[in-house]
Specification:
This is NADH-quinone oxidoreductase subunit C. With 223 residues, the protein is of the alpha+beta class. It contains four helices and five strands.
């Protein structure tokens, strides 16, 4: 037996093969999950369009919504102030008492918030609800506003990329959005730049992930 002490080589140890295999498997699993989400979303959209087509073929033409003039005025004010590209979609939600709704470009939300609150033709001074949703292909933040002058309700949506979802906070205008935005941040991972204290509200700070996302995987499945 030799008593010779060998000097350390100074080279870092080679990475374990198991770690590389585990990372590759995790990446493949995430890719497969994303493809499955996209496929499910596409199937739902196709089914929705097919159903709408069948209904349109069987039913007589619908009369215009009684709230269509309200929606037209709403869209007109937004486009005039923020530009044509600010409004991505506009529609009447017939199931919700013909609620006038718009989908806005998230990039204009900060300017849109001030407009919704202060413009004399809108005056949405009351935030009725604020929620988030995972649509698998993207995330959405949904706002419900009320114009107190005539009790007219409005719906506003923004669609966000799943990778880095972010939209300006509206707490500077509607203080009641504070806890709503924190809840959406906590459970869906949406960032709200400008929020005064964007920290988790339901889960501990060291919680991994966002439980209301469709791709959420709990570290402990029994919890």
């Amino acid at each position: 037996m030799s008593d010779e002490i060998k000097e350390p080589s100074g080279e870092p140890p080679a990475p374990a093969e198991g770690g590389a295999d585990e990372a590759a498997a995790k990446e493949a699993k995430a890719k497969a999950a994303a493809e499955a989400r996209a496929a499910r979303a596409a199937a739902r959209e196709a089914a929705k369009k097919a159903e709408a087509g069948e209904e349109a073929a069987d039913a007589p033409p619908k009369p215009p919504s009684p709230k269509q003039p309200v929606l037209d005025g709403f869209v007109g004010i937004l486009k005039e102030a923020l530009g044509e590209a600010a409004v991505l979609e506009a529609f009447i939600n017939e199931r919700d008492d013909h609620l006038p709704c718009v989908v806005l470009d998230p990039a204009v939300m900060e300017a849109a918030a001030a407009l919704l609150h202060d413009h004399p033709g809108l005056r949405m001074t009351y935030l009725r609800n604020l929620a988030g949703s995972d649509l698998e292909t993207h995330l959405e933040v949904i706002y419900h506003f009320l114009r107190m002058d005539d009790m007219q309700e409005f719906g506003v949506k923004v669609k966000l990329d799943r990778t880095a979802p972010s939209v300006a906070s509206i707490t500077g205008i509607w203080a009641g959005a504070d806890w709503h935005e924190r809840e959406i941040f906590d459970l869906l991972g949406v960032d709200f730049p400008g929020h005064p204290n964007l920290v988790r509200i339901m889960l501990p700070d060291n919680w991994e992930g966002h439980p209301l996302r469709k791709d959420y995987e709990p570290l402990d499945p029994e919890v």
